[in-house]
Amino acid sequence: MYIIIIGCGRLGSMLAEDLSDSGHNISIVDREAKNLATLGSGFNGLRIKGIEFDNDILIEAGIKNADYIISATPDDNINITVALIAKRIFQVPRIIARINDPKKKRVYDGLGIETINPTELSVYILKSRIEENPK
Amino acid sequence: MKSIIIGGGKIGSNLLKTLKDRGYDVTLIEKDENICRKIANDLDADIICGDGSDLAVLNDAGINNADIIAAVTGKDEENLVICQIAKMEFQINKSIARVNYPKNIAMFKALGVNETVCSTEVIANLIEYEFDSDICKIIQTFDRGAMILVEVIIKEDSRWLDCFIRDLELPGESVIAAVLRGEKVIYPRGDTQILLNDSVHLITNKITFLKIKDYMQAGGISHAKKKK
């Protein structure tokens, strides 16, 4: 599958390397060159440095042919903007955005953007582990 | 009228002052606490320190009763999201976004934010205006040059001097909207004659403007006596 990942932080870079190792075509976008440099030399996807929601950058990343776009920057407003562009302008088949501030979930929901909420997931896992082992 | 400004930078704080002076009910939202304090020291205004793209903060600011929202932060993505929230969650139809990078204007439009102000573009246009020749000047640009208002000052050597409107050879995509003669506004008809020192206002687009400019500059003295 052709997958675009927006944001090369801890989540973005790890996801990019993992998906790439599994044989998917990956292009990853980040405005900071040093973030892109954290990807190992083994990563053979496309690295693009630029503003994440810039039209030309997204086209360079192959948004017109992408099967998936994952918006995983640490800024909710960037994630929402990228998701809206992918959805309404380029009609990318599947879009998943990362929620950073759980309070913003309602905004993503209202705009019809599929999300993953790492904070909520961590809370859920921690809580269930604590309750499984009450001692 | 109730309005909310998001972003307390130079544009936001000056807008707050202007709207307050005109007697509007206005609330400002700004993230940075120091900036909030500074504005609060200068002005007796409603200021909320918080994230303008947060629903709870917008509720505090009274968005439910707001008639107009101005998102003027330095980040385009933030301004876009605020306008989307205003529309989706609070059914506010009148929201204005500041666009910092002119390139993003098209994206804002495509995502349904029609009212945008791009200070970068405005300044670039003003400078361009000053550079324009004395004969033809762009006064106002609409929709990134899709439509422009041009002023043509009629001098002694102008090709249009003493001509009647009906005899002017104008390119297709242009129309004479008004003629200013001193303080008087003349609404041109075919039998309106263009006189010395008139200021002729045309509506056209950027491409046609260049043609008109070339035509006027190619005029010269030899055409001055050409009367109809």
From TrEMBL, chain A:
GO MF assignments: potassium ion transmembrane transporter activity
GO cellular component entries: plasma membrane
Segments forming domain RCK N-terminal: 1-123
UniProt entry tagged with the keyword Transport: yes
Keywords: Ion transport, Potassium, Potassium transport, Transport
Pfam families cross-referenced by the UniProt entry: TrkA_N
Stored SUPFAM superfamilies: NAD(P)-binding Rossmann-fold domains
Presence of the UniProt keyword Transport in the record: yes
Protein name: Trk system potassium uptake protein TrkA
Organism: bioreactor metagenome
Gene transcribed to yield this protein: trkA_12
